[in-house]
Amino acid sequence: MSLAGKTLFVSGASRGIGLAIALRAARDGANVVVAAKTTEPHPKLPGTIFTAAAEIEEAGGRALAIACDVRSDDQIAQAVAAGVARFGGIDIVVNNASAIRLGGLAQVDTKSFDLMTAIGPRATYLVTRAALPHLEASAKAGRSPHILTLSPPIALQSKWLAGAPAYTFKKYGMTLLTLAFAAEFRATGIAANALWPRTTIATAALNLLGGEATVRASRKADIVADAAYAILNRDPRTCTGNTFIDEDVLRAEGTTDFGSYAVSPGTPLAEDIFVD
């Protein structure tokens, strides 16, 4: 398996899972368009598009840092055009950018709802649409193009429908669009799949939401990156239209020991949102 020479457009790649996926691809010598908003260090969320690009190049890849608010159609178009100008095309789109506001109907206000849906299903649609001509060109060139969205399997009896209706709507919307992409582009050879972690993943954002105890009960972002890597190396003609869980992907690849992914080995792991 190898992503050498492939070009990835990763939204929200300045930190966390998006950066981990980019770094895993970079180890093969892939090109990565780092499309995210953060250009200046945040006091509570370390990492910018520039530090991410530096890490990607240090890992063996080539990177282009592009300031991009995925709520803006114009900025997305500019970021895609810049990536194509630098690397000659786009083979893989990773819809990773996200915003989270948990709570019920009374707790999540209109502003938060609009933010989540704009950075969720709307951005998934806009980013994929902007990259589509280049994914089609990749398919014609036999470069196995993929769309990968960080969103969960849809479970209509999930406890999260009641516990976090707005966030559930946002994430399920991302998954539904991805399944629609798979159906629409199956005949053209463009794969579209969703991926979600079984456990909570240790990121700076999780630390803000759940604190150190939750982080200790989590796995490293490497497990999602390794699962994404396995999916992106599969044949798009046969691997499309799936809603994967990271651990299941890696078990299918032969992994039986997941201990190395634990932040604090021996600490009971916390299941992620949407894993009932």
Q: Care to describe what's here?
A:
By secondary structure, this protein is of the alpha/beta class. The protein has a single domain (7-261), classed as NAD(P)-binding Rossmann-like Domain (Rossmann fold), CATH 3.40.50.720. The protein contains 9 helices and 7 strands, in the order βαβαβαβαβααβααβα. It has a 7-stranded parallel beta sheet with strand order 3-2-1-4-5-6-7, sandwiched between helices. α4 (110-140) links the parallel β4 and β5 (146-150). It starts with 6 loop residues before the first strand and ends in a 24-residue tail after the last helix. The mean pLDDT is 95.
Please supply descriptive tags for the structure shown above.
globular, alpha/beta, Rossmann fold, 9 helices, seven-stranded parallel sheet, 276 residues
Task: Summarize, please.
With 276 residues, the protein is an alpha/beta fold. 45% of the residues lie in helices and 13% in strands.
